[in-house]
Structures are given as C-alpha cells and as structure tokens.
Amino acid sequence: MTDPSGPPVPPGGGTGDGSVSGCPPSENGGAARTPGPATDDGGTARPPGPAPEGAGAAGRGAEGSGAPVRRTTGLRLPALLVAVGVLLASMVAGVLAGAADIAPGRVVLQLLDWLPLVSADSGLAPVEQGLLLELRLPRVVLGAIVGGLLAIAGAAYQGVFRNPLADPYLLGAAAGAGLTTTVVIVLLKGDTESLSVPAAAFAGAVGGVLLAYALGNVAGRGGGTATLVLAGVAVTSFLTAVQTFVQQLGVEDLQRIYGWILGTVDGGWSRITLVIPYAVVSVAALLLHGRLLDVLSVGDDEAVSLGLHAARVRLVVLLAASLATAAAVAVSGLIGFVGIVVPHVVRRLAGGSYRVVLPLSLLGGAAFLVVGDVLARTVLAPAELPIGVVTAFVGAPFFVAVLRVTKRVET
Fold first, then answer.
1. Is residue 69 a part of any domain in this protein?
2. 3-state DSSP call for residue 112?
3. Which of 27, 147, 289, 381 is deepest in the core (most CB within 10 A)?
C-alpha cells in the first residue's frame, strides 16, 4: 500500500526523479556521484592498492585500459653489495682451503699483491705462489663461473615456463652432453683432461636443446611451453638410453665417465678461457631480458596487449639459457640442483621481479658452487667428493620442499 500523500518510492531508495536518497540530483536528472580525485586523462583515479607479487615493470594492461598496473622496483644497491660481498668471501675461503698447509694471512696478502696498484709482501715461496695461482685460484674462478651460469639459466627457465621446478637441464642439455662425452671417452678414447671432452659436451648440450625445440615445433605449434617440456622429456629419455648402450661397449671406461658426470671444477685456466666467451654472451642476453620476463610472467595475452612478441622473447631467453647451460656442462660435467636452489632463495629474500632475480641468481649461484667445492675438498680430506654429490645432498631435500610448497599453493 502506498502513501496517498506522495508519489511511490521506487525500489532501491530512489526518490522518483532519478536521484538516490541522500544524494543531490544531477543536471540530467540522475543521481550525482561523489567526486573523486581526477587523473591526467580526466577519469577518476582508483584507490591505491598493493601491487601483486612478482610484478614486472609493465602492467597487465596498457595505461588507461582499465587493467591494474603491476609495478616493481629494480635491483637495489644494498642487495647487490651484499651479494657481491658473499661471493668475494666465498672465493677467499675457496682459495684458503686445500691440502697444503699455508697460513691464511699470507694467502690473503698474496691475493692482495696480485691486485692492480697494490703491493703486499706475503712471504710465500715461489712453489706456494704457484700452487695458489695454478691450482686453487682457477678452481675457485671456474666454480664461480659455472655456478653463476647454472643459477641464472635456471631462473630464466622458470620465468619462461612459469614453473618453479624448471631447471637448466629441462630441455635435454644434460642428456646430450652426457651422450657425446661418453662417445668421446669410450669410442674415441678421449682424455677427460683434454679439450676434446668439453668441446664434445658443449656440442651435445646444444644439440639436445635444438632437438627438443625442433620436436616441440613438429609435435604442435599451438602447444606452447607444455609441448616443449614434453619434447625435452622425450629427448632426454632417448639420449640417456643411447648413452647407456655406449657405456656397455666400454666397461673399463665407466670410472672416467662417472667421474665427469658427477661434476668437477678442477679444470685450470684453459677451461676458463674456453667458457668465458659463451658466458659473457649468454649472461648479457639474459640480463637484458629481465624486464621482458616480468611482462611475460603476467601471461601471454597481457604481454601481447602491451606490444610484446611473447614467442620471440621466449625463444631468445631459451637459447641464451641453453647456451649458458651448455657452456657450464662443457667444462664441469653435470652438476645438479644449482638452478633450482639459488633462484628460489633469491626470490624469498629479494622479491620476484626478474630484474632482481637474474643478477642476484648469477652472484648467488657463483657463491653457492664455490662453497660447495670447499665442502667437497674438506669433508673427506685428503680424499675429495665429486661436487655434484655435495649439491645433490643440499638440493634434493630443497627440491622436495619446493614441490610441497608448490602443491600447497595450487590447492
């Protein structure tokens, strides 16, 4: 029943003239809205809110499109200085560790004496200086290079596939390197100390990745990263089977084969000069794509809406990460878990932006493997553990923890 003294009140609190109760009518007869802060383009600004985790420099949509903009900060100087400090401390510890008993103070003075524009008298004999320069120092430098390459490659793979469990050996690099190395040792009687094994390992790693990529394209152009991962699994299984067959042809060489497969960074300056050109190219390419990986992390549709060629970025990053992996495998053998452990620790400590994750993973991976090599040399001294065993002891439980966290997030 309505009140005969006035017009019926419309549902929802209206007043009958198109306005809303408690709000003054507008000039066109509708309810006037409460004015809000204006933006540069004449619209009404949204209230500020927290940026999503792992945001990149670009947003989910172009400015003015109505989509929320994801913002992140780049690499901060304190974090960079801490990472560099940890790396330098680990490298000094690596030079100090060894079977020969050399006073740590003299070792530090000798390292300072080798720096430009620095003169320090360490009092070390020429033999001791040669031991540091030809044995310990190149081992530490090679370990830092290999660890950095594996860590930054792992971070890049995780960004491309948007999968926290992706690692540098996902697309068949390890299987390809293992096969060609086994062929050189068993059939060609190559020496693991010569450059023939690193060259064969590099060719095999690159060949394994290219084979996986070609198979992924043939299997389905629209399959995206899932098809590529399945192609990598297939290539890895096939190449591993061939490697096992070749191993049976030279049982007497199994010790040398497994010695290389379990990993080592005892290669001397010759292997460092071999790996540096590939390391510089791959690291530079990955660091330059950190911002684009942030955009890619929000999804292909959003990335395309921002004008990003997602397929091209993914291809370049995959090739650069595979080149880094191949270079590391060529001079050190198969060292696992570095590409999973280090990027996850960096994300927990410094955030999810790839402009931060990639450079800090490079430095953190270098420090991680140098410390791992110190443990490999000292745990059973004077005997020495393969460094791949040390990283597996650390990485396997960590991998399980990451798997559990990932499963909890998905559910």
1. no
2. helix
3. 147
What is the pLDDT of the chain when averaged over all its residues?
Answer: 81
pTM equals: 0.78
Asked if pLDDT for residue 34 goes beyond 80, the answer is no
Q: Give residue 283's identity as a one-letter amino acid code.
A: V
What angle (nearest 5°) sits at the alpha carbon of residue 320, between those of residues 362 and 232?
Answer: 105
Task: Flag whether 302 is in a domain.
Answer: yes
Query: Which of the two residues, 260 and 291, has the higher pLDDT score?
Result: 291
DSSP classification of residue 409: H
Task: Enumerate residues 6+ apart whose C-beta is below 8 A from 48.
Answer: none
DSSP E strands: which ranges in 275-407?
none
- Helix 224-248 crosses helix 173-186 at what angle (to 10 degrees)? 20
User: Using one digit for the tens of pLDDT, what is the confidence trace for 120-148?
Assistant: 888 899 999 999 999 999 999 999 999 99
Contact 296, 160 (CB under 8 A): yes
Tell me the C-alpha distance between 291 and 52, whole Å. Answer: 16
Contact 148, 332 (CB under 8 A): no
Angle at 327 between CA 311 and CA 199, to 5 degrees: 120
Quick one: tokens of 119?
Answer: 């003169």
Place of tokens 């001294």: 381
Give the pLDDT confidence of 101-125 residue by residue, as tens digits.
889 999 999 999 999 888 888 889 9
Cα separation, 60 vs 303, whole angstroms: 7
DSSP 251: G
Q: Using CA atoms, how far apart are residues 334 and 221, in angstroms rounded to an integer?
A: 31
The domain that contains 253 carries what CATH number?
Answer: 1.10.3470.10
Q: Is residue 60 part of a domain?
A: no
Number of domains present in the structure of the chain: 1
Least confident of 211-215, 220-224, 245-249, 333-337: 220-224
Contact at 8 Å (CB) between 146 and 369?
A: yes
d(CA 227, CA 231): 6
Contact between 169 and 388 (Cβ < 8 Å): no
**Domain extent at residue 183:** 79-410
Of residues 281 and 55, the one with the higher pLDDT is: 281
Cβ neighbours, 10 Å, residue 159: 28
Say which residues have a Cβ less than 8 Å from residue 105's Cβ, sequence separation at least 6: none
Residue 44 lies in a domain: no
What are the Cα distances from residue 341, in Å, to 134, 167, 345, 396?
30, 10, 6, 9
